[in-house]
Amino acid sequence: MTYDYQDALAYKGISAAHPGGFSLTKKVLAKEHFSSQEKVLDAGCGTGLTSAYLSKEKHCKVYAIDIHPQMIKRATERMKKEKLQVSIVKGSLEKLPYPDHFFHTVIAESSIIFTNIPLALNELYRVLKPGGKLISIDMTLEEDLRPHELAQLKGLYHIEHFPNEQEWLGAFEKAGFKKVEILKSNTILQEIEEYTFSDNELNVMPEELPSDFNDILNEHGKMMMHFADRLGYRVFKAEKND
């Protein structure tokens, strides 16, 4: 069986693979207000770390979705262990199983870039209420790469396109978002210098796993170091006005 980067994250139980990790997530969400009646979607929930945080700390109504069955399993186990009421479903960001105008807020952490970006943004826009907000943390190209370098990245991550900042902003606007802010930006190199690891970002189960996963994650580490000053991330906050 052939495994990929998403499989490695899922089976190793890595909860916050995006640049900045869970520390960045908490800093971003600390500045956001959530009411107890607010419906929040964790779009690409992974092992459910952010969903659990939202439920425990922000006391809102949390919904979580992920395409990977192992991530769904881990997220479900997390909620059961912590006795949290989070609605978890398996599904694609490109075809969300929710009605129009359903959510007040959507959180997407390193998930949109792994999709057909226009389709996913259209769907996230659709399920947001008027006045709702999308908070997205995603990889961003800091400068143009050569074709063979892009091929390396695409081969490891199975990502079709690595947008730069202007391409991300254009994609949000094309999906219908009228106000888009950049809350934070960093290169991978800058983030490595600032990063503080949190123990609860790793939730490895005591099961025997193929060595392929370690190989994939090692390759990921090498790739991040190689492109450390040419890849980065942005934290976007996009609002739906109509």
From TrEMBL:
GO BP annotations, alphabetical order: methylation
Domain Methyltransferase type span(s) in chain numbering: 41-135
GO molecular function: S-adenosylmethionine-dependent methyltransferase activity
Pathway linked to the protein: Phospholipid metabolism; Lipid metabolism
Gene3D superfamilies in alphabetical order: Vaccinia Virus protein VP39
Pfam families (alphabetical): Methyltransf_11
Coiled coil stretches, renumbered: none
Keyword tags: Methyltransferase, S-adenosyl-L-methionine, Transferase
Protein name: Class I SAM-dependent methyltransferase
